Amino acid sequence: MPVHPAESPGRRTAPVEPAISPPVAGHSPAPAVPPGARRPLDADTLRPLAARLGLALAVVDEIDSTNAELGRIARGLPGTVGLPAVTRPPTLTDGAPAGLVLAAERQTAGRGRLDRSWESAAGAGLMVSVLVRPEIGPRWLGWLPMVVGTSLVRTLRGYAGVPAVLKWPNDVQVDGVKLAGILVELAPSPAVPPAAVIGFGLNVTARAAELPPRSTSLLLLGADPARLDRSALLGALLTDLVEALARWEAAPERARGEYRDTCATLGRRVRVELPDGTSTHGTATDVDELGRLIVDGRAFSAADIVHLR
User: Fold this and answer.
1) Which carries the bigger pLDDT value, residue 30 or residue 122?
2) CB burial string 91-119: b at 16+ within 10 A, e below
3) Which among 73, 48, 98 has a CA at the least distance from the CA of 249?
4) Which end of the chain is more exposed for a tag (fewer CB within 10 A), N or C?
């Protein structure tokens, strides 16, 4: 199964869309951003936590794309922020880091699904990429985006207290609107095992006017203001992600059950929009052992899914 990127939740600049999204039902249209909630990420606090997880972390004010930067490093090319090369999988080890984390306050060429450009207001969200080298058989690599999605949902439910779910394969939603997006890319590299760059964008304190249509944020969802500190939230997300990757490597077959528990697409009537421009309708009943969505008995590995009422 190929690795499928998911669109980031930040503002898209192409195609042009209305600047203001409608408020999410049941939530205040203009909640106040808590004082200090948009202060810069606290790299000094995050680095020791990352080190305990076997990661090296850097925070930059601006970069073209966190995914692009880690992709360059994975291919053995010079990076722009001084992160070291990584040659081992994401396990807790002594010595050199097993993975790299790059967070940016602003991206100038951030990418989402279908190579759409996007950006986020400074301090309003998390834009993070993680470079890992999972030690797992090739048949299981297609599960990586869904393992990441399951991990983000678990953290958002447990730490932030919002009822997040996944729309196949890995769009993070609440009440049918997008809260976070994930972009996973395999990076050709001279080292083994192969590298994977995990990128995610999460709307934290973004207001409605700062988001594209059908998007939301933790602020708009009424999350506890104490949980809107981006540094603490990123620490919680990284902690679960490293643990989730370790469980996946140890028992990859278990990822399917965990994913099914978080996927709101299952049991829904959907429209399947295929890469060739055609579409079909049906009921999504399952995800098979390769991570493909089963709709009326047919398996789909590459498609846009629209939930129907």
Assistant:
1) 122
2) beeeeebbbbbbbbbebeebbbbeebbbb
3) 98
4) C
Pairing of strands 165-167, 55-60: unpaired
CA–chain centroid gap for 181, Å, is 5
Residue 232 φ then ψ, to 5°: -65, -40
The 10s digit of each residue's pLDDT in 84-119 is 665 544 443 334 567 899 999 998 865 544 444 456
Mean pLDDT of 120-131: 90
Rounded to whole angstroms, how far apart are CA atoms 127 and 29? 24
Contact 262, 282 (CB under 8 A): no
Please, what is the average pLDDT of the chain? 84
- Which residues are within 8 A (CB) of 36 and not within 5 positions of it... i.e. 6 or more apart? none
Q: At what angle do helices 255-262 and 144-158 cross, to 10 degrees?
A: 50
Radius of gyration of the chain (CA): 18
Tell me how far apart the alpha carbons of residues 78 and 70 are, in angstroms, rounded to a whole number: 10
pLDDT, residue 122, reads 84
Note the pLDDT tens digit of each residue in 11-31.
433 322 223 333 444 444 568
Average pLDDT over residues 176-204: 88
In this prediction the pTM is 0.86
pLDDT band at 83 (very low <50, low <70, confident <90, very high): confident
